[in-house]
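Note on ligand handling. Small-molecule inputs were canonicalized before submission; formal charges were left as drawn, and no protonation-state enumeration was performed. Where a ligand contained multiple stereocentres, the stereochemistry in the source SMILES was retained. For flavin-adenine dinucleotide, this procedure yielded the string shown in the input block below.
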Amino acid sequence: MTDVVLVDRGWFPRDKTCGSGLSPAALQLAEALGVGEKVRARANPVDWVRIVTPGREELLLPANSAAVILLRKDFNQLLVERARELGVRFHAGFRASELLRDGAGRVVGVRGFDGVELRASFVLCADGAHYIFSPDRRPKRFISTLMGWWEGAELPPRRLNMVFDRNLAPLYGWMFPETATRVNIGICVDGQDARGQPAGRNLRALFERFRDDRYREALRGARPLGKLKGHSIVFSTWVSQCTAPGALWVGEAARVTHNATGEGISQAMQSGVFAADAVAAVAGRTDGALSLGALRLATPPALHRRVRGRVPGESNGGLQRS
Ligand SMILES: Cc1cc2nc3c(=O)[nH]c(=O)nc-3n(C[C@H](O)[C@H](O)[C@H](O)COP(=O)(O)OP(=O)(O)OC[C@H]3O[C@@H](n4cnc5c(N)ncnc54)[C@H](O)[C@@H]3O)c2cc1C
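Structure output:
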C-alpha cells in the first residue's frame, strides 16, 4: 500500500481523557510499530502495582516497567509522527460526517462536514466511543468514568493503584503516576444497570467520595490541574458487526475494550493492525518500503483511513478477518 490517508477531526497534539496507562500488550505493539524506544524514553515506568480489595486488603505486585504511563497527548502524537515518517498523509481537522457508498452499497470513501469527499478503496473507521458510522445495531454498553490530574501529590513514585472500592463495584478507582510529580486519579463504574438501563449514578459525588476517602492526605499540598473530565468507555463481550463491504471498524468504534478494566489502547492498536493486515491481504500485493508498514502504522489515534488498493475491483471477502 502506498497511498494511505489518515484523518481526524482534532488538531494534534491534542488532549484525550484517559488514564494513559500503557499495558504490556500496548508496549509490545508500540515496539512493533516502531515507537517503542521513544515511548520508553518519555513515559513514566511502573515499578509496582498496588491492588486494594473491597475489604481493604492490599497486594503489592512488582511490575518492573512492564507497563508505563505516557500522557495520551504525547503517545498519540508519537504515532501520528511515525505514520507521517512512513509516508501516510495526515489530514487534521477533517470531521467525517458520512460514509460514501457506490450503487451496490459498498463503502468508497468519506465526506467531511465541509462537503469535501475523500475517495478510497478501503475505509477503516476508528472514531472512538461516540462513533457515528457503525453497522452495529446492538444497544451500546458502556463504562462511565470521571478523572482529574494533580501536581505534587505525596505518593510513592512509580506505583500504580487499582482500588476496588465497594462504592464503585464491580469496577474500581485508580491512581496512575504520570511523571515523578504528576498523578491522575479516576473512577470507573458500570454505565448501565442489570437491565441495561442508564445507571443514573452521581459520578461527581462518587468521585469526590473516592478521592477524599483514599487520597485526602496525599493531595493535601497538591495542585489540581484543570477540571475533572469524564468520558464513556464503550465495550462488548462479543465483538461483532464491525465489517461492511469496503469498510472495517476498529478500536472503540468496534467496542473493542476490556469490560472489567476499561483498557482500550492496546485493543485499539491491535484491531488496527488486524484491519491493516486484512486490507493488505485483500489488496493482494504491496510495493516498496511503505507498503504494509505504512498501513500498519495508520492505527489508533486516527480515524478514517483511505487505502487505495493496487488490485481494482478486488472482493471484500478477506476483510472479514478482524
Ligand atoms: C477516563 C478514561 C481512562 C482510560 N484509561 C485508559 C488507560 O489507562 N489505558 C488504556 O489502555 N485505556 C484507557 N482508556 C480507554 C482508551 O482511552 C480508549 O479505549 C482508546 O483511546 C480507544 O482508542 P480509539 O482509537 O478507538 O478511539 P479514540 O482514542 O477515542 O480516538 C477516536 C478519534 O476519532 C476522532 N473522531 C471522532 N469522530 C470523528 C469524526 N466524525 N471525524 C473525524 N475524526 C473523528 C477523535 O478526534 C479521536 O481522535 C480510558 C478511557 C477513559 C474514558
